[in-house]
Fold this protein.
Amino acid sequence: FLAQIAQLSHFGGRFELHYAARNRSLGAYMDQLTAAHPDKVHCYFDEEKQAIDLGRILATQPIGTHLYVCGPKGMINWVLSTAESMGWPKLALHHEEFLAPGTGLPFEVQLAASGKTITVGTAQSLLEAMEAAGVDAPYLCRGGACGQCETTVHKCDGSILHRDHWLSPEEQAANQKIMPCVSRFEGKTLVIDR
């Protein structure tokens, strides 16, 4: 949503962000967003007994509004089913689910910047393997939805198993980028930044 907000702001687009978290400490970029867009960012915290009045929010949007929701599956289902029951067209509903990375075969990856070669275990994400090797890699959602961990691929002799919601189908097919928080590799050689 950070990239979308920046683009909408740049072109004068209209948006509202309704951000829910268990508590203030778990709200990634919340301070930055509320400072930059105080009239457009609305925050809700479970620990403070605050709840989103979803019905009111959806009922007051102008025709043509698109709804984007990301988060855990239960929340996504609630938001989408509420919108559908209120007559929102399916083409205006978009979602990204935060998922734990899937398991797979172990693989090795070469990290160009650090010069390290690491092994990613069956139940470990590439991001977790990099962290375990002491490599500082950016991340936010750990679910393939935010784009923070996007990493350039220098060489790919095999198949990247793209499990993200960030890269376009064309970007995934090109195998020039990988989202280490969720995507895996099968093949002989994978060389990435870091």
